[in-house]
């Protein structure tokens, strides 16, 4: 068996207030995203989102359905976003091959039946980060390079949050049902992401932190604005953010993270900002 999955139930703010460190990590941290020659998936009941990774090294990996979906193939009623954070690799979808280099993205629409993942070189394997959400109609599959992304520059060095936002699989770049994905790169000397923090009741989100240097870490902040919690995270780990929760982080070095989200609104700016002095 090359596909492994875990299930996470949705939890309320009231439950989260009483969680210790171990419980927070059990419910929200996706500790293992990439394993050689395996597909790792985490299915959360928040918007029925799936996040995970495919890391082909010596084998070609097939995206197969998992029991909770109760369908014949994975994308029968879903769409899939893929961003490669490893060596060059190839995703083949219903016979069409898409080569993805580092930090390039691919969208696969509902109804795609056969999906495989392969690395061009075993010495530098691809690491395909996967996000999937339920889909109501078919939109065409499409590769998105970094040159095709919508770029936004935010923050400043003075507030240690100078960052470049690469909107890859979002409205205006590509059509999707509800899935949106992008990548935020922090400049040297900046450590804070998504600050001021915000919530968005109409969408949930998952962050994948990567390019975290050896012996460094990221402290991810979550919870209601007046009742925040934190989770310490290592390189290439992901974290689930409920709609009621803030999602921000600060690292002991600069880093990069991929954000993926789903819900009832494709407006990227649909968020409720939490003023920094009001956070508790």
From TrEMBL:
Q: Which UniProt keywords apply?
A: Isomerase, Metal-binding, Zinc
Question: Which reactions are catalysed by this chain?
Answer: 5-dehydro-4-deoxy-D-glucuronate = 3-deoxy-D-glycero-2,5-hexodiulosonate
Residues annotated to bind Zn(2+): 198, 200, 205, 247
GO MF term (any one): 4-deoxy-L-threo-5-hexosulose-uronate ketol-isomerase activity
Query: What GO biological process terms does the UniProt entry carry, in alphabetical order?
Result: D-galacturonate catabolic process; D-glucuronate catabolic process; pectin catabolic process
What parts of the sequence cross the membrane? none
* E.C. no: 5.3.1.17
Look up the record and name the pathway of this protein: Glycan metabolism; pectin degradation; 2-dehydro-3-deoxy-D-gluconate from pectin: step 4/5
- Kindly state what the record says about how the cofactor is bound: Binds 1 zinc ion per subunit.
InterPro entries (UniProt xref)? KduI, KduI/IolB_isomerase, KduI_N, RmlC-like_jellyroll, RmlC_Cupin_sf
Listed cofactors:
Zn(2+)
Task: Write down the Pfam families for this protein, in alphabetical order.
Answer: KduI (PF04962)
Chain's role: Catalyzes the isomerization of 5-dehydro-4-deoxy-D-glucuronate to 3-deoxy-D-glycero-2,5-hexodiulosonate.
Similarity remark: Belongs to the KduI family.
**NCBIfam families the record matches:** PRK00924.1
Q: What is this protein called?
A: 4-deoxy-L-threo-5-hexosulose-uronate ketol-isomerase
């Amino acid at each position: 068996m090359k596909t492994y999955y875990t299930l996470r139930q949705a939890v309320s703010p009231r439950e989260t207030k009483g969680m210790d460190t171990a419980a927070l990590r059990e419910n929200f941290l996706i500790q293992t995203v990439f394993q050689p020659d395996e597909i790792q998936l985490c299915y959360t009941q928040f918007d029925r989102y799936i996040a995970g990774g495919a890391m082909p090294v010596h084998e070609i990996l097939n995206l197969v359905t998992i029991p909770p979906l109760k369908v014949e193939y994975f994308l029968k009623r879903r769409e899939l976003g893929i961003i490669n954070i490893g060596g060059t690799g190839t995703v083949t979808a219903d016979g069409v091959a898409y080569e993805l280099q580092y930090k390039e993205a691919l969208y696969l629409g509902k109804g795609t039946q056969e999906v495989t993942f392969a690395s061009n070189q075993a010495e530098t394997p691809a690491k395909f980060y996967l996000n999937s959400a339920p889909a109501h109609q078919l939109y065409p599959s499409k590769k998105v390079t970094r040159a095709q992304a919508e770029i936004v520059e935010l923050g400043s060095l003075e507030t240690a949050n100078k960052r470049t936002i690469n909107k890859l699989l979002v409205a205006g770049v590509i059509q999707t049902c509800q899935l949106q994905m992008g990548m935020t790169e922090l400049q040297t000397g900046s450590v804070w992401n998504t600050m001021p923090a915000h919530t968005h009741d109409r969408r949930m989100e998952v962050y994948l932190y990567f390019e975290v240097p050896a012996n460094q870490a990221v402290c991810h902040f979550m919870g209601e604005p007046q009742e925040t919690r934190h989770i310490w995270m290592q390189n290439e780990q992901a974290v689930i953010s409920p709609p009621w929760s803030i999602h921000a982080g600060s690292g002991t070095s600069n880093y990069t993270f991929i954000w993926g989200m789903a819900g009832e609104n494709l407006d990227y700016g649909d968020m409720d900002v939490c003023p920094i002095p009001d956070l508790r």
